[in-house]
């Protein structure tokens, strides 16, 4: 390669500035190529990494390429191969190469994507991504789309809009006066809501939700919700879920949203990984009535398989999002529409995290996204079927989406089998507690988890079972 011509483009950098970039690219590609057959669990821990990096701040500067090399050498042994097609922990997706490439460009471009008019390039891409997402997921075309760090902040953004609206309807300006002296905001959520909802409510000063009973699969009891709604006329937010953390089950969002609206309440949907069911005709029964809610949260890193930092918040009435999250100042160049990116999420400066979302959608197309989601669901069903044939294995949930929860008998044995499985290094699944039992939870979230990878997974589980008396 002709380095002289390239380095002239690196304005203000030293002449050898290309060397660390070349090395980082080579190490990144080598990592990605090794992931499918890599030992999934980390080989070292925090202390080992810090020892290799050096714990004392250097007095003098060091060669940038040497720094990059030392960083990769020290950190890679402590990385978990979460991009592996046999990684099933914590609903963590893989990463499409096109999304990784787009994310590299985002870093190199270094635009503040919160500012639309001064930095139109990345804003244009994110706006397209937002429109495509609304179309793909069947949400109102006029809804606002904000790109957040992840599902927790997407929930926060949607619930902030909800807090604004229900208090405004009660005659209280929470943005001007805060919560002191405000009418009490009642939040109703299913008993099996995700912890990110609790965090978002805490950040917003709304406190703990009143929990509504759920069925065995974690779906909110709509009749019980209706009864709870009727108990009070306080400003109310209802939190629903599309994709239960353990079972993958979906609330009846349409019926629950209708009940909320009959009582003047706001309906918010936490669809961190489940909202994507709306992208495939085969799963429309799970997503029925989704568009009748008022706000939605998801995370493209999970099901769409983009890199981290790709949460998405949707609000049916954009003015509520702007009122809750927006700011105006003389130094900010506002758009005529008022829907500047900084008014839709809790950040006034951020990277262009919607660009990898656009790149993935463009590369896959509508049919490709549907095939991705269908493939995850098919892999989960096959995994449940094959695991269920092993002696001593019990599948605890109805496998309707991408989650499979299993036990191997008593809690102690389930934990021991899980430890043995992870120690082998070929498969990683995370343990949890569900229905007062220790479970091993397989979250099928990687686009490359096909039938062959499922069978490798089952054989690894068989070996783990045999290893535990």
TrEMBL record:
<keyword id="KW-0663">Pyridoxal phosphate</keyword>
<keyword id="KW-0456">Lyase</keyword>
<dbReference type="InterPro" id="IPR002129">
    <property type="entry name" value="PyrdxlP-dep_de-COase"/>
</dbReference>
<dbReference type="GO" id="GO:0008483">
    <property type="term" value="F:transaminase activity"/>
</dbReference>
<dbReference type="InterPro" id="IPR015421">
    <property type="entry name" value="PyrdxlP-dep_Trfase_major"/>
</dbReference>
<dbReference type="GO" id="GO:0030170">
    <property type="term" value="F:pyridoxal phosphate binding"/>
</dbReference>
<dbReference type="InterPro" id="IPR015422">
    <property type="entry name" value="PyrdxlP-dep_Trfase_small"/>
</dbReference>
<feature type="modified residue" description="N6-(pyridoxal phosphate)lysine">
    <location>
        <position position="302"/>
    </location>
</feature>
<keyword id="KW-0032">Aminotransferase</keyword>
<protein>
    <submittedName>
        <fullName>Aspartate aminotransferase family protein</fullName>
    </submittedName>
</protein>
<keyword id="KW-0210">Decarboxylase</keyword>
<dbReference type="GO" id="GO:0004058">
    <property type="term" value="F:aromatic-L-amino-acid decarboxylase activity"/>
</dbReference>
<dbReference type="GO" id="GO:0019752">
    <property type="term" value="P:carboxylic acid metabolic process"/>
</dbReference>
<dbReference type="InterPro" id="IPR015424">
    <property type="entry name" value="PyrdxlP-dep_Trfase"/>
</dbReference>
<keyword id="KW-0808">Transferase</keyword>
<comment type="similarity">
    <text>Belongs to the group II decarboxylase family.</text>
</comment>
<dbReference type="InterPro" id="IPR010977">
    <property type="entry name" value="Aromatic_deC"/>
</dbReference>
<dbReference type="Pfam" id="PF00282">
    <property type="entry name" value="Pyridoxal_deC"/>
</dbReference>
